[in-house]
Specification:
This protein has one domain. Helices cover about 30% and strands about 25% of the residues. The chain contains 2 helices and 4 strands, in the order βββαβα. It has a 4-stranded mixed β-sheet with strand order 3-2-1-4, with helices on one face. β2 and β3 form a beta hairpin. The protein is globular, with a radius of gyration of 13 Å.
Amino acid sequence: MLQKTQFIAETDETGKVIWLWRRNFNDRVARAVGSLEGLALELQKSNVEGSSVEAALDWLVRKNVKRQALAGVGVNANF
């Protein structure tokens, strides 16, 4: 059996991903995703419950853009 990380997407009433939770194979409970480093590649190799992988990747892009804007990188985003 292939042991994968499971991601659980928390969505709003429109189905848009608003947060992502991670449950590693040996974990008993899911935990909120903390680090966004390397997450795009990991999402593509894992199971995503509650949304599509594409919707989870869209959340990741929105989250990264928002962090860059808060850090003053100068990214324009519509949230």
